Amino acid sequence: MDETLARIRGFERGAQDVRPHASEVDCYYQVVNDSDGGALLHLSTFGSDNRQSKPKSSQVLQLNRETAAELMAIIKSVFPGIA
Predict the structure, then answer these.
(1) Predicted pLDDT at 13
(2) Cα 25 to Cα 23: distance, rounded to the nearest angstrom
(3) What is the pLDDT at residue 54?
(4) Any domain includes 38
């Protein structure tokens, strides 16, 4: 595994002053196995359409079963009624 990448270990509500982003990016997903054979959801975003160079991966997130469940709970709390 590339040492510059890391798996999400958990989520905490932030308090940063954030605003909506003006640009959109594409996100690709893959399923990879960890060293114990467990599934990881691997998400890679790619630079915006305005990027000067050719598209390349900008951010990468990896979620295991537990962190994926935690993210699902957060999503359901932000978007009530989502299935």
Answers:
(1) 96
(2) 7
(3) 59
(4) yes
The count of domains in the chain is 1
Q: For the purposes of burial, counting CB atoms within 10 Å of the CB of 63, is it exposed (0-12), middle (13-18) or buried (19 or more)?
A: buried
Rounded-to-integer distance, Cα 81 and Cα 83, Å: 6
- Asked, for residue 6, whether it belongs to a domain, the answer is no
What residue type is assigned to position 39 of the chain?
A
Q: DSSP 3-state assignment of 54?
A: coil
For residue 53, give both structure tokens.
């160079």
Domain membership of residue 3 (yes or no) is: no
Q: For residue 37, give its domain range.
A: 27-47+56-78
Q: Given pLDDT bands bounded at 50, 70 and 90, which one contains residue 24?
A: confident
Does the pLDDT value for residue 60 go beyond 70? yes
Tell me, yes or no, whether 70 lies in a domain. yes
